[in-house]
């Protein structure tokens, strides 16, 4: 499903020092794209994602999904959060967590089992279905969150720094797994990160956001490389360099 934002501004209760967090954001995400929102902490990446999810409404402007104005959350959009603990129901097993949304939506027993099993297979958790979140590593918890989203079969997958709290090795493994899943389900994915390598490992296109308040999209970078990304490819190295300089400029603005 295509996502369109036009002249979107957003302020939390009057804004940061009276200014909106986001101002005049125009954005089109074609169906099936893997898009990255990259930017310094606090610039408004999560806010932008929440507007697409429908958790918040733009102060001005409009967000459209498949041509329809977003007025709230919907089954067409699934979300994965950064939190390792608060995002999962601690009293439910892995299967219980993955099936939760399907139960809420009164999906039949047979479909619920099939959709949950398929999602658990995609994240390699089929052998851990009876475990409680307490018994899982951080990486496994995030895979449960991804499976929970996949089980609902959303057209759009929204991910807010899902691997930020994990160690570098686990993060890299999950990045690879996520690209495989995305290629299999062929859905639109929007992924928020402040990590440049993560952006280049995952995205077909990277949007670099300016520092807030009144943040917007500063530059857009296409990543014309196949998956898995070869970090020694001259194009990868060149993009890494350009993005590092571009983001550094924004971080400097925040601190000056
Ligand atoms: P990022 O995801 O880029 O780190 P956020 O979208 O979380 O940035 O936050 C952007 C700005 O909005 C920050 O200045 C943050 O303090 C502020 N902010 C975020 N959530 C709220 C909220 N619920 N109420 C008020 N201000 C908020």
Total of DSSP H or I helical runs spanning 4+ residues = 7
Q: Are there runs of 5+ residues with pLDDT below 50, and where?
A: none
Mean pLDDT: 94
SSE order: EEEHEEEHHHEHEHEEH
| N→C terminal distance | 40 Å
Strand content: 15-25%
The largest pleated sheet is described as: 6 strands, mixed
Which structural class best describes the helix and strand composition? alpha/beta
What global shape is seen? Answer: globular
Return Rg in Å: 18 Å
Widest sheet, order of strands? 6-7-8-3-9-10
Which molecules are bound in this entry? adenosine-5'-diphosphate
Helix content: 25-40%
Q: How many β strands by DSSP?
A: 10
Can you give a write-up of this model?
This protein is α/β, with parallel strands linked by helices and 256 residues long. It is globular, with a radius of gyration of 18 Å. The chain binds adenosine-5'-diphosphate (ADP). Adenosine-5'-diphosphate binds next to helix 1.
